[in-house]
Design a protein that fits this description.
Distance between the termini: 29 Å
Helix content: 25-40%
Order of helices and strands: EHEH
Structural class: alpha+beta
Number of strands: 2
Largest sheet: 2 strands, parallel
Radius of gyration: 14 Å
GO molecular function: DNA binding; DNA strand exchange activity
Shape: flat
Oligomer: single chain
Number of domains: 1
Number of helices: 2
Length: 69
């Protein structure tokens, strides 16, 4: 049996932009669970989980984990 492809999950802080925004806020824990389910359904193995809690609104936000790879 062939090894499953390895993938990384990149999780970001998430929040609604406006009161009428149809997207839901998702915690990084919820994002990770969803990503792991997707990986399993698609025959992948999660190699590493990167978590970014910096604001997505700030262009100059430091993202040390993202910069690693």
């Amino acid at each position: 049996m062939a090894d499953k492809p390895l993938i990384d999950l990149y999780l970001r802080k998430s929040k609604n932009l406006r009161a009428d925004d149809h997207r839901r806020e998702q915690s990084t824990d919820t994002q990770e669970a969803s990503g792991r389910r997707w990986a399993d359904r698609n025959g992948n193995t999660v190699r590493h989980v990167w978590v970014d809690l910096a604001s997505g609104y700030k262009a100059d936000a430091k993202r040390p984990d993202f910069a690693k790879r």
